[in-house]
Inverse folding.
C-alpha cells in the first residue's frame, strides 16, 4: 500500500495523538523518536486485502473524527497533540462499535510503532528486572524535513500547538 | 501461460506442514514411502527468524493476524504461515484428547477404530517422547503464571502447570517469534527435519490451488509458486501422487481447497471455535511478564465450558491492550513490568461455515457465537477478574465495551456478571479451530471416513483438525498429531500389504 502525501501527514498526526510528546509525566516520546508511518505501513502491508482497506478507512475516519464528533472543524492534524489524545480516548471508550474498533485498529499501529522503538521500550519498564531499570538506549531522532511541510487541508487549525501548519 | 517452475512426483503428496501434515510426513517417510510436502509459507531457519515482534509476525503469521471472520463483528483467526504451520508460533501446549470427546466420537460418529483407546494412547506416548513433552517447571513459570497458581489455590480452582513440548525451555517468552533455543519442538525443528532425513522432499512457498482428480481418484496437486517477500505468483507447480494426496492445510484452507477441487456437500460446514478473550491487571509488585514461559499455568473448567490460561504478551500487544490514549495511557506505559494477563478460552457450541472467496488468498468464514457461548465467556472473564483481585490486583482491565474500562474493587466484578454482553462488546480471537471436513462412518453426515479418506474421492485424505467432528474445548495440537499418527500408520500399513 502506498500512502498519499496527505495520508502520510494524517498517519503521523493521528498516531502521535496516542502518546503526545507534550504530555508531562509518563512515557513521553521525543519529537522524531518514533517512526509512526513505517509501522503503519508495515502493519497495513502485511494484512489481508480486506484488512488493508479497513485500516485505510479507519485512518480517514479517525483523522476526521474532530469534525464528526463536533470537537473542531479540523482534521486531527489541526488539533494540538493533547486535544488529539482526548478525541482518541473518547473514541476508544465509545459505546458505539464502529468508532471504538476503528480507533483501536489505529492504536495497534501506534503501539507497535512505540514499543518497537528500542529507546521507548527501554523506558517502558517491560524489560526492568528485579527493580533495576533496563539498560538505557539512546533515542535516535529523525532529521527534521528539509522543506517546510505544506499546509494541511484543515480549517481553523489549532496553530499555537501545531507550528508546522501554515 | 504461467511457466511451470516445479514438477515432482511421489507416493504421497501432503499439503500443509503444521501438526497434521508434518506428522503424516514423519510416519509415511519413516515407513519408507516417498513423500513430497507442500507449504505456502517460507522455510525459516531459527537464526533467520527476527526477535522483534513486527517483522516476526510479518514473516510467520498469516496476514499479520488480520485474517478474520466476516460479518458485522469480525474476530481474528490466528494461524501460522511458515514451515511448521501454527506449531511454529504457538506456545507448544499439549493436551491429550479428552475422554468425553473420544467417547462421543465413537458413539455418534462411529470413529471407534480411529480413536480406539489403546492405539491412541500409544500414539500419544510416542509423540510425547519424541517431542520432549513435560510439565512446565516451576523455575521457569514466571510471575504471570505464579500469580495465577496463587489465585487458583486461594479460590480452590483446579489449576495445574501446563504440559508443553519444550523440555529445555528457559522461559524467554518468545514462542511467537520462534524459540531461539529450539526448545519448543514445533514441527519445523522436529518432525519435518526427521521426515526429510527419511527421504521426504519439501517445497516451501508453494500454494496449492487444486487437487487433481481423475476417474474419481486424487492423482496430484497443482498450484502457484509464490515470491517469498511479496507473495506474488512466480509460476506454477505440479506434483503427481502415485498413491494418495493428503490435505492438511488447516480448518480454514482445507475446505477451501477441497471446494476449489470440485468437492461439495458438507465441505466447509460445522466450523467450530475455541476462542479466547483476555483480562489484564495491574499489581503493586513487579510481574515482569517478559520473564518466564509464554504460557505456563492453566485452569481447566471443562464442566463450565471454558479454560483459563496465563498468557504472556510482548510489549507491543500489552500496550495495545491497556485502555485509553494520552496521559493516563502514557503513565501505564512506564510500568509495563507490573501487568499480568490471563485468558479465558470458551468451548463454543455455535457452528459456522467456510467457503472459498473471490481471490487466491481469501476465504469466506462465517461464525456467530450463540447467546449461551457469550454467557460462558462472561462467566470466564468475571472469574478471571475475581481471581486477579483475590491475589492483590489494584486495577483490572476486563476489556469489555460498555462496562468500566478499569475495575478497582472486587465488588465491581458484579457489573460483568450482571451485564448483557454482546459479541460486539468483546475482543475475541481464535486459534483453535475444528470441523469443516468432519470424519464419520456415515457419508450423509461426514466428509471423510474413519480412515480419513474422502467418501467421494478415492486416495484423497484429510489429516488436520478439519476432521474433528466436535469442539475439543482444549488446545488441539496433540490430538491432531495423535489422530493423524494413527491414520497415517494405517495408510502406511495398507500400502505395505498392497505391495
Amino acid at each position: 500500500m502506498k500512502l498519499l502525501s496527505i495520508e502520510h501527514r494524517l498517519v503521523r498526526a493521528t498516531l502521535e495523538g496516542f502518546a503526545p510528546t507534550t504530555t508531562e509525566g509518563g512515557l513521553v516520546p521525543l519529537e522524531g523518536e518514533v517512526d509512526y508511518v513505517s509501522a503503519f505501513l508495515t502493519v497495513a502491508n502485511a494484512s489481508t486485502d480486506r484488512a488493508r482497506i479497513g485500516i485505510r478507512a479507519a485512518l480517514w475516519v479517525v483523522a476526521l473524527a474532530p469534525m464528526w464528533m463536533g470537537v473542531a472543524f479540523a482534521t486531527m492534524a489541526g488539533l494540538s497533540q493533547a486535544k488529539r489524545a482526548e478525541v482518541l480516548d473518547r473514541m476508544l471508550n465509545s459505546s458505539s462499535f464502529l468508532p471504538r474498533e476503528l480507533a483501536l485498529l489505529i492504536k495497534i499501529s501506534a503501539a507497535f510503532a512505540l514499543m518497537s522503538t528500542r529507546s521507548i521500550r527501554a523506558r517502558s519498564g517491560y524489560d526492568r528486572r528485579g527493580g533495576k531499570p533496563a539498560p538505557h538506549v539512546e533515542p535516535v531522532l529523525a532529521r527534521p524535513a528539509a522543506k517546510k511541510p505544506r499546509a494541511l487541508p484543515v480549517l481553523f487549525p489549532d496553530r499555537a500547538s501545531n507550528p508546522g501548519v501554515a | 501461460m504461467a511457466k511451470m517452475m516445479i514438477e515432482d512426483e511421489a507416493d504421497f503428496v501432503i499439503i500443509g506442514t503444521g501438526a497434521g501434515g508434518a506428522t503424516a510426513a514423519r510416519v509415511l517417510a519413516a515407513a519408507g514411502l516417498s513423500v513430497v510436502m507442500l507449504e505456502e509459507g517460507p522455510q525459516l531457519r531459527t537464526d533467520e527468524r527476527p526477535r522483534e515482534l513486527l517483522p516476526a509476525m510479518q514473516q510467520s503469521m498469516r496476514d499479520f493476524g488480520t485474517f478474520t471472520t466476516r460479518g458485522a463483528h469480525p474476530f481474528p483467526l490466528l494461524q501460522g504461515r511458515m514451515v511448521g504451520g501454527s506449531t511454529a508460533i504457538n506456545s507448544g501446549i499439549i493436551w491429550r484428547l479428552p475422554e468425553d470427546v473420544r467417547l462421543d466420537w465413537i458413539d455418534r460418529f462411529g470413529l471407534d477404530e480411529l480413536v480406539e483407546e489403546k492405539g491412541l494412547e500409544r500414539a500419544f506416548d510416542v509423540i510425547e517422547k519424541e517431542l520432549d513433552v513435560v510439565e512446565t517447571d516451576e523455575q521457569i513459570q514466571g510471575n504471570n503464571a505464579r500469580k495465577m497458581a496463587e489465585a487458583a489455590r486461594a479460590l480452590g480452582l483446579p489449576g495445574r502447570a501446563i504440559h508443553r513440548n519444550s523440555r529445555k525451555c528457559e522461559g524467554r517468552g518468545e514462542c511467537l517469534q520462534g524459540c531461539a533455543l529450539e526448545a519448543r519442538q514445533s514441527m519445523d525443528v522436529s518432525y519435518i527435519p526427521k521426515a526429510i532425513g527419511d527421504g521426504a522432499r519439501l517445497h516451501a512457498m508453494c500454494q496449492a490451488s487444486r487437487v487433481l482428480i481423475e476417474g474419481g481418484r486424487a492423482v496430484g496437486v497443482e498450484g502457484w509458486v509464490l515470491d517469498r517477500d511479496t507473495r506474488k505468483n512466480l509460476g506454477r507447480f505440479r506434483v503427481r501422487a502415485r498413491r494418495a494426496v493428503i490435505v492438511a492445510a488447516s480448518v480454514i484452507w482445507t475446505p477451501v481447497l477441497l471446494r476449489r477441487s470440485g468437492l461439495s456437500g458438507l465441505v466447509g460446514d460445522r466450523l467450530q471455535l475455541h476462542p479466547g478473550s483476555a483480562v489484564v491487571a495491574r499489581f503493586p509488585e513487579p510481574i515482569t511478564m517478559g520473564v518466564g514461559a509464554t504460557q505456563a499455568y492453566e485452569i481447566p473448567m471443562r464442566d463450565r465450558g471454558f479454560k483459563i490460561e496465563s498468557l504472556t504478551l510482548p510489549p507491543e500487544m500489552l500496550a495495545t491492550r491497556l485502555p485509553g490514549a494520552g496521559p493516563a495511557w502514557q503513565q501505564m506505559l512506564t510500568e509495563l513490568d507490573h501487568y499480568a494477563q490471563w485468558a479465558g478460552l470458551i468451548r463454543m457450541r455455535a457452528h459456522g461455515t467456510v467457503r472459498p472467496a473471490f481471490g487466491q488468498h481469501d476465504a469466506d468464514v462465517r461464525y456467530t457465537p450463540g447467546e449461551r457461548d457469550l454467557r460462558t465467556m462472561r462467566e470466564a472473564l468475571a472469574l478471571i477478574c475475581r481471581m486477579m483481585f483475590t491475589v492483590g490486583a489494584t486495577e483490572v482491565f476486563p476489556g469489555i465495551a460498555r462496562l468500566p474500562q478499569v475495575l478497582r474493587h472486587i465488588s465491581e466484578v458484579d457489573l460483568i456478571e450482571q451485564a448483557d454482553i454482546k459479541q460486539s462488546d468483546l475482543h475475541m480471537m481464535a486459534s483453535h479451530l475444528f470441523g469443516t471436513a468432519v470424519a464419520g462412518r456415515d457419508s450423509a453426515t461426514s466428509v471423510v471416513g474413519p480412515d480419513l479418506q474422502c467418501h467421494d474421492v478415492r486416495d484423497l485424505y484429510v489429516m488436520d483438525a478439519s476432521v474433528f467432528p466436535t469442539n475439543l474445548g482444549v488446545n488441539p495440537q496433540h490430538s491432531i498429531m495423535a489422530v493423524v499418527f494413527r491414520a497415517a500408520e494405517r495408510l502406511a500399513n495398507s500400502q505395505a500389504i498392497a505391495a
Summary: The longest helix of chain B spans residues 477-498. Chain B has a mean pLDDT of 96. Chain B has two domains: 4-68+78-90+95-130+186-268+435-498, 135-175+276-347+370-425.
